[in-house]
Amino acid sequence: MGNPFHLNDDVCNKLKEYGCEKYQMSIDGIRETHDWFRKPGSYDCTLEKIGSLNRAGIRSVIMTTVSKTNRNEVPGIIDAVVNTGVNIFSFSRYVPSGGDLDASMTAQEYRESLSDIDAKFKYYEAQDCKTYFNRKDHLWTLYQYETGEFKIPEYAQEGMIYNGCNCGNCHITILPTGDIYACRRVAQSKVGNVFKDRLAKVWVSSLDNYREYDNFSKCSKCELLAWCRGCPAVAKGTNGSFYAADPQCWKEKNDLTGEIL
């Protein structure tokens, strides 16, 4: 992950020689919005450097952080990056980190955004677009469950985790300092340091606090527990608990049975 400002053909060729296979940059709105988030001129600069990465044989990736501020601009971002030839496009949701900034969407707003984004993805996919659209947000599972594109497999066994949030499952973050985090988007999730702690021990012990699937206040009652669980980072940033309900999950609970509908 990096910014575009130092990139040119020579730098990208060097990165390729050093083993860089994929380079991710951010676009967080159409030109005016993105330049307000980042700095003036950065929108056009980012789109321009997609070409430098592609020419060097490095997979170009654009990531968008979706919030209340820019959610209606995501289809326009997709148009821009596809037309520029980006290899991969994906997005994740804004994770609140305290303070006065309130950029969180309501659950219904987010579902509407997913519907709009899905339509845009399918439009380009039907044209054999070369851009790969990464549906990485786990609430895609809920959305596709409702549309019939995802069905619970017949082989599913109770108590097994098959997909969804990878925190504590098949994912950790190691920073340049050696600090190990359960998730880079979860505040206060440091579980060790690779220069001081044996990684295998951290994995089998310190990460247990992130594998208590029955503790998910909403997801544990949902039939999609083994495939979704929303984003615990957004839940913690919003409600202070990794196991709190994802604030953008629109699935409603039956007050009589306690089951998630």
UniProtKB/TrEMBL annotation:
InterPro entries: 4Fe4S-binding_SPASM_dom, Aldolase_TIM, Radical_SAM_PqqE_MftC-like, rSAM, rSAM_ACGX, rSAM_sf. Residues 3-79 form the Radical SAM core domain. The keyword Iron-sulfur applies. SUPFAM superfamilies: Radical SAM enzymes (SSF102114). GO terms for molecular function: catalytic activity; iron-sulfur cluster binding; metal ion binding. The keyword Transport does not apply. Keywords: Iron, Iron-sulfur, Metal-binding, S-adenosyl-L-methionine. Pfam families: Radical_SAM, SPASM. It comes from the Bacteria. Residues 165-231 form the 4Fe4S-binding SPASM domain. NCBIfam families: rSAM_ACGX, rSAM_more_4Fe4S. This is Radical SAM additional 4Fe4S-binding SPASM domain protein. It comes from Lachnoanaerobaculum saburreum F0468. The lineage of its organism: Bacteria, Bacillati, Bacillota, Clostridia, Lachnospirales.
